[in-house]
Each structure stands twice: as structure tokens, then as C-alpha cells.
Amino acid sequence: MTTHTICSVTDLIGHTPLFSLQHPLIPANKKLLLKLEQFNPNFSVKDRTALGLIQTAMNSGKLHPGGTVIESTSGNLGKSLAMLSASMGFRLIVVVDPKVSHNSLNWFKSYGAEVEVVSTPDVNGGYQKARIDRVKALLEKYPGAYWTNQYDNPDNPNYHEMITSQEFINIPVDMMLGSVSTGGHFGGIVKGVKKVHPKTLSMACDVAGSAIFGEPFHPYLLNGLGLSWKAQNTDLAIFDFLNNVSDQDAISLCRLLARDIGLLLGGSSGVVIFSALVALRLPEINSVLAITPDSGINYLEQFYDDDWLVEKGVIPLSKEQLEIRLSCNADKFYEEMIIHDEI
Ligand SMILES: Cc1ncc(COP(=O)(O)O)c(C=O)c1O
């Protein structure tokens, strides 16, 4: 047997495992496959997005070795850009706000990234605009620096359409499911797969409270997915179905799967797998593929911590309660599908 040797962390990105989930919540004779993005080297799907944004900028001459990359992020994209900047020799400046976790700050700094903390909120009381203003000020200060701009930069969905989707086109399933924040990752994959398999259904999943699907925003507990607005990179017309899942349903499912299967998943994975279990309760859907974006390692001090749950007032549901929630959701979804078909 030969051993394949690699020389760069970039070679560890992608080709994540496909996991056939076996669990009593899956209806008999139905199939649920998970694409486990936590097996990327920095533990999330954002390794792919970061690589796509950096490679495309280099190919087009907007970024050169030794150059400076700037991004506003306190989450997984920042961690992935920090890893790539260390590996590829860029200077990275990450713009964050005071809500950034201590863990994320140490993560960025461990890779040698510089961190700019915005301390004054913008006129809306949030930090989103204040962070973007700081990015713009840094771009003026460092001429030639490159802003990856994951929310609006079309290189994000385009990379996933051209490259990431190739890992999905040979997996025959009735429906694919993924969660959305910028919309770049799942939107790109669906576009790429539909070119080859136009009949494969897609369901974009989000946390209840997020405004991406056009509903009024209210605060939610999960991280990584959702937004209080909709990014330019999110094209909802690409998807066949949209589904929102509550914090409680997603968290309960993640905690259950950790104990029953030994898979420690992030909260957005709970959203996608809950949606997949709803979809599998519809008669037409026999096999689904759910993309799980990151690892529970990011949330050990959040919803995997019993005290945190008490503090936030979340009561985890049992397997039996989840079964009831899934059936109710499936009934509601089925009615909506019929109404949709009749219109
Ligand atoms: C943890 C995490 N990372 C990445 C993503 C992918 O998001 P995007 O839509 O920004 O590509 C999601 C989406 O839900 C997520 O939850």
C-alpha cells in the first residue's frame, strides 16, 4: 500500500468523508448521508471558502504572495483565512467586535493573524457597519491590500459551483440540504449539481429568527448560520425548499447524536440534520444528503455545556419529543408542498 504524502495544509482541504447515519429517528428503509465538513484541517466548511477566495484573488492578480488580506469576521472564515495566511505567507488583518470569543481571538493569533477590535457600535447599535467601515479604513491605509468580502464577493459562490460541487455530483440522492449564512457555499453547490442533475431537489436550512428567508429577525442562540439581513451572495431562487429550525430542536438533536452516534457536531449541523429528518418523512423523499458545516469543538462552552443551557433557558428535548417535533414539522411541510403545487 502506498501512502500519499502532502506538503501543504491546502492539500488537506476538501474530499471530506461521507457518513451514512444510522439512527432510530431515520424512517425505515430511508437513507441519510452526511458530508462531514469538520474533517477539513481547520474543522469547518469555511476552509473551502477561504481557499476559493484566496486562490481566485491570486489567479486574477488582485493578491500576490506576501500581500495583505483583510476580512471582517469573528468566526470560522477568520480561522480558515488565518490558517491559509500562515501556510501561504500572507499578512492577515481580522476585524472583529467586542462580542468575539476569547477562543476565536486565540485561534486567529495562534496562526499569526493581526486582530483589529472595533469598539464603538454603529448608528443601529450593532457592529456590522462599524466593522465594514474599519475594513474600508484599513484598505486606504494599506494600498494593495485585498478584502475577501465573503458576503458580496461572487468568487465565493462561483468557487463552490465550479469546484466544491464536483464532490457531490456522483452521489445519487433525492434531495440535498445545507445551511446558509452568506449563501455562498450551499448556493454554489446546488447550482453546480443542478447543471448535471436538474431533478435533484434542494433545501436551504436556517435557524428560526434569522432574516435570510424574509421573515422578521429575532435573536437566536446558534452561531455560524443565519443573519439579520440577506447577503448579496444568497440567491434564494436557486433552492426548491427553505426551512427554518428552532434553537431548541437543533441543539437537542446535536446533543442526542453526540451520545447515540459519537459525532460531535456544530449547531448548524443540527439545523440541517433536523431538516433532513423532516424531509425523509415525506413519501417522495427516500434518500437525502445533508452537509454538516462544522464540529461541536466550537460549541463545547455553549450548548454542550449544561450550565449554559440553563442560563439560556433551553430545555433539551428527548428522542421521543424530537420524534413528535419531526412528525409535526413534516405534516406542516407536506401541507405547504401541496398548496405550493396547487398554486
Ligand atoms: C458553521 C458554519 N460555517 C459555514 C456555513 C456556510 O455558510 P455560508 O452560507 O456563509 O457559505 C454555515 C452555514 O450555515 C455554518 O453554519
Automatic annotation (TrEMBL):
Organism of origin: Vibrio gazogenes DSM 21264 = NBRC 103151
Family annotation (InterPro entries): Cys_Synth/Cystath_Beta-Synth, TrpB-like_PALP, TrpB-like_PALP_sf
Top EC class, one word: transferase
Protein name, per record: cysteine synthase
Claim: Ribonucleoprotein is one of the keywords in the record: no
Needed co-factor(s): pyridoxal 5'-phosphate
Keyword check for DNA-binding: no
Protein EC: 2.5.1.47
Organism placement in taxonomy: Bacteria, Pseudomonadati, Pseudomonadota, Gammaproteobacteria, Vibrionales
Keyword terms of this UniProt record: Pyridoxal phosphate
